[in-house]
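Weekly modeling sync, notes
Attendees: S.R. (lead), two postdocs, one rotation student

Agenda item 3: backlog of single-chain predictions. S.R. asked that every request posted to the team notebook include the full sequence so nobody has to chase files. The rotation student volunteered to paste the first one in as an example of the format we agreed on. Action items at the bottom.

Example entry:
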Amino acid sequence: MTFGIHRTLLVLLGLLAVFSPLDAQVPGLPSVSKTAGTPKPAETPEEAAARLDQWQKEAKTAIDRLNEPGAENRLPEGIDSAALSDYRRDLEQILLSVGRNRKILAATPEARKALEAARAADAAWTGFAEKPPYSILMIDEFVNQQEAIKDKAASYRSSLAHFGMTLTGLHEESRRAEESSRRILAEASETGGDTGAGQWRLTADRAKMRLMALHATFLQNNIALLEEQSETTKSQLSLLNRQIAIAMKQPAFTDDDLAKVKKVAADRRAGFQKEIGTVRKRQQEANAARVKAQAAFDQIVKAAPEGTNFEQSPELALAGVKLEAAEAKVDALQFVTETLDSIDRLASYAPDVYEARKKLLEKNPKDIRESAMQVLDGALDRLKAWEIVVTNELTSVNADISKLESRATLIPAEDPRLVPINDLRSSLWERQAVIQRVSQAVAAQRRMVKRWVAGFTDSSKNIPLSEKISDGIVSARDLALRIWNFEVFQYDETEIIGGLPITQKNGVTLGKFIIALLLFGFAYFVSTRIKNRLQGTVVRRGHIAEAQARTLSNWLMIVVGLLLALATLHFLRIPLTVFAFFGGALAIGLGFGTQTLIKNFISGIIVLFERKIRVGDVVDIGTTSGTVVEVNTRSSVLRGADGRESLVPNSLFLENTITNRTLSDRTFRRFINIGVSYGSSPSQVIEILTECAERHGLVLKDPAPTVLLQDFGDNALIFRLYLWVAQDGKINGEMVESDLRLMIDKRFGEVGILFPYPQTDIHLKTEAPIQIELGRPTPPQA
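Predicted structure, as returned to the notebook:
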């Protein structure tokens, strides 16, 4: 499409719009230039931006003057409030149009860069870096991008056609505006430009022309932007078409691709479940709000005179709208929950659909491919039904929104019913958003599956005759059956029939073993769930400690496992004599292997029931010390002060001497040795040490801290500060001692008490002269 006439129109509108700035006052307006000058060349982006800034500034100035007190009263004769309102609206539209034009000008360089990048990528691409075959998921991504870009290109073409028609319509409107401007100019020339009304109309007309120029500029720039974006899509489609054509020659659907699809589906389902949990919490809050609104409504109805309706009682009307909004929110959240659950189910079908597609891509027998095609056809039917339901739901909620909007237009802005009406509108919008989300997901999946079905339908016509013959062969099924019925070993089973022992041979097949393992695993899983539930209930009710419950439950599951193994073998009629061959070796191995295990297990039970050592106690075992954090069946876990955890066999608790620091009392005593210089006041030192200990918040008041003068040292008076600290797993005794030493050092410095340095007195006898010789060492003789 050629827009030459539109560009000419744009130049004319620009010339008419810049006769003089919009800085006129009301009513005293400046005079109008009589000449327009010669047309200027096309503006640069910088000039266009400067012009927009100037127009925006002038429009703001004019609006500020219109908003001055008494401005409406100073209108010239012949100008009414309607003309003032039109002028003000034009100025406000100028500000909005300036903002839109700025956005278009800012987006144009980016669009140009995108076009150059797309053309460069199309020209530079010569093939894939990786070798064939190419992942079918990569091809799907290319095809999805291709379809999205095609939709975008169609949107650009539609917008170009629409803006072209709008620009054509603007030409007729500008012609009428130009005639009006000429008429106003002629009237101003006849009166000498002194009429206030004429000057006012001229300024208002100038603002209208400027607004039309901005509209035309916006349309023209938008058309140019869309043309560049349309060219960008052409280059992108050119590259994608080449990539798809090459990749489709050697596609591959590997197990890794299928695993990736399953992982993505699982992640999406986990996200849906998390979102459903959030919505259900909101649903609980909404239910509570609905109950509250229902109670308020019932109370107002009960208090109102009999026969009172909503129109007669504004209070009743407000309560009714609040109740309606609360119910709508509950219904909307319930609908959102159900819809998200439906999307979750829809996502669960994705792996099955991809598996069917994988079977169709591979060279499988005919019956397998037909079954896979049935899966895809079923998915298409299911998605089509979803699409119909979603479309109906969307139509219904749109009708409810339209009805609510019509209802809201009749309510004044100061009416308190408008607040619950807005809440009701938000609930409907949330419902609409979820439906649109489902609609987009269903449409995308349906289009993708439909594309797959069409591709397989076309490719099935080219299957060679040899492959069609091989499709009827069921050798794979027979092979699977033979493997399933393969006898691992045979055993003799004796039965008494008619009083006589009859021996017959039975075989244990691989299939029986698999069934036995499945049954055992399922039964053990159910038993574990029941055990966890019972263990949690017993621990919560305080019947037994958690560590004891865990130990007993572990031993119980060992017994349950043995019983389940025996029950499974009996159900499958596999006698225990089958395992007699392993009996001797198993008994010897169990005898030696479980000796230490059973000793530690029984020791653990004794420790748990005796309760001399509990979880949380601080114990010393030889050179190992720490806090007991677990008491398990075989060993216990001690966590030391440095954070390291030690595994201690339970038998050591009974065989060795154990120091339990927190057996009956969770407090322990610590001490600090302090040496001060001779000459210091011992009583003052004792007072300061006691004061520091009492000031520390973690030192216990009972027993109170004690200070003793312990010894007269070589260089200092030795004092010892005894203090008691609680042992609760959060208090570090060494940190307490460090804090006290800092406090003591500060207090000693304040009162002048010194810490002594090590001293040595050297006595020299001076009764005879001291002989001092200086010389070099004598070298050793050879």
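Discussion: group reviewed the output briefly. Residues 136-190 form the longest helix (55 residues).
Action items: rotation student to repeat for the remaining queue; S.R. to check formatting next week.
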